[in-house]
Design goal:
23% of the residues lie in helices and 39% in strands. By secondary structure, the protein is an alpha+beta fold. The protein folds into two domains: 3-149, 2,3-Dihydroxybiphenyl 1,2-Dioxygenase, domain 1 (Roll); 160-257, Roll (2,3-Dihydroxybiphenyl 1,2-Dioxygenase, domain 1). Helix 1 (15-26) runs antiparallel to helix 6 (227-236).
Length: 258
């Protein structure tokens, strides 16, 4: 079984200024706007990071799940870990393991060539886990949440190459890691105090929440090609933390040389 991270979703109060920070600092381009998220009271924009995607959503109506999440976490932050399974059977197996472990399905859409299954963030503790299946079975190309194809000419890897990892935090990182392991069907690896799960292309890291914001998607590990560009732009936009970290949209972006 292979599970590929295809998209990370962040949530913010304001769309345009946050997109500008993300695009200018990370050197990435806008590629797609999905009007379908309007049914959830949201608006969005997607930007490719390598062959995968960074999405920003913003609530545009009162009383949305996204709005409540912003309130619970005390501001902008990480929202969803969106993955692609290598076939429909494995996607459905993740769905069933969630149910077998008392985890609710928040939303799903059964389509002829593309299925979405969003697993409840309250039960997954740190974020939504979305597991999708696409008949094209292409981990590096066709991706329906980004409109299928047509985004390739927007890819720019001269500054940011791609994802390396996702940092999920909670009050009990051991329990958090074990839950994600049970639902994904993947083993939890331990290296001293470090807990992780290996997806096909990235590492999920589980850490203790110590920032007062509670459980959530706290950080992203990025492979970068031009650290100087990122740091220069981050300093101009008050997003600089250190030469190895910039914070954008309430998320820690950890910079790793390719």
């Amino acid at each position: 079984m292979a599970i590929q991270l295809r998209q990370i979703c962040l949530i913010a109060h304001e769309l345009d200024s946050t997109i500008e920070n993300l695009s200018k600092i990370l050197g990435i381009n806008k590629c797609f706007v999905d009007p379908g998220v309007g049914v959830y009271g949201l608006e969005n924009t997607l930007l490719p990071i390598g062959r995968n995607f960074l999405e920003l959503v913003v609530p545009v109506k009162e009383g949305t799940t996204g709005g409540r999440y912003l309130t619970r976490r005390g501001g902008d932050g990480g929202y969803m870990v969106i993955c692609q399974a290598d076939n429909k059977e494995n996607q459905q197996a993740v769905r069933q393991r969630a149910l077998d472990n008392g985890v609710r399905i928040a939303s799903e859409s059964e389509r002829e060539t593309w299925n979405i299954c969003q697993i409840h963030p309250g039960d997954m503790i740190a974020s939504f886990l979305e597991i999708d299946w696409d008949v094209n079975n292409d981990f590096n190309g066709n991706w329906q949440p980004a409109g299928g194809l047509g985004w390739e000419d927007k890819v720019n890897q001269s500054v940011t190459k791609g994802y390396q990892g996702v940092e999920l935090q909670g009050p009990d990182p051991v329990a958090l890691a074990e839950l994600w392991g049970k639902v994904t069907g993947l083993p939890v690896e331990r290296d001293g105090s470090e807990l992780s799960i290996e997806l096909n292309n990235v590492t999920l890291r589980f850490v203790e929440a110590t920032d007062g914001r509670g459980a959530g998607l706290a950080g992203l590990d990025l492979a970068v090609s031009d650290r100087d560009h990122i740091l220069r732009e981050a300093k101009e936009r008050a997003c600089y933390v250190s030469d190895r970290q910039v914070d954008i949209c309430g998320v820690h972006f950890y910079l790793h040389e390719t």
